[in-house]
């Protein structure tokens, strides 16, 4: 006979944890007490303010739907894309040459479209103003060296080694064919993307006139990879929020719920669905908050939990491994910048944008959120050959 707890035990268990339980009663009552207060929701691509009292949400996108994100990310993908083609061949994938041919075709198509006027008139991002010519040069150069290197490898498959990938493409030294390593270009494209994101989001958040000391913030749903961005140090949205608040946002007011509800594009025009989501977000945040508050009341006098936001390590001459993301000390700290690229790919907990996000946010805050005063790693102090 299969085990089943006695109904009386089950009933007692459900009295605290069931659908109509004491725990649910407290959560829902806290929702009613704060229903006129704002709650800020951060999804994988949007910041959404539910102002309270059933007022319509205010939405600002920061990722895929933003101008220039896809263009810069497509170029940033050159490095890993070629590495994947190499790996497919090593593992005996029969159609790896088709992937290589597709990459070459689309690279040439982008090279034909890329122009200064495209970046000035089509992308037209405030944070890139004045950089359009150099961005055009960087993209043309990256397309050129990528196509040349891949064609060189396809002409003789024995050249398709990861040693060649590193020494002739990703990280060459004193190379006439690849004067700017592709590793540096990847740092630059990440930095430029986050220069725009950081600049816009800092402006937008500071314009909302929040009471940061009491604001409820919930990072809900997947953010990047399913394993990434689950803690304050690994989710750069927390750093943006803290910076926007000038350090006034308490860490305990920011909760990360990777399995929480997410918002889709179709939800934005559906008032009934938005009200349903707002209720879910508020219940989730306040259920977490209820447990925090109760713990402090129940166990007062015992050591308290403190959310860990540790100072990042600095790479030393003998550093071989790292347990946390190293600190980028300056835009010319190339060793750390490229190590951070490795770190975000190798540590599944990291958002890929963490490679540069914290440095760019800090630079924006130090310079009055003026993108022109930020020295961009992999870009500002390097010269990309002019577009041919």
From TrEMBL:
Chain ranges of the DUF5624 domain: 66-195
Alphabetical list of Pfam families matching this protein: DUF5624
Protein name, entry field: DUF5624 domain-containing protein
Organism: Paraburkholderia acidicola
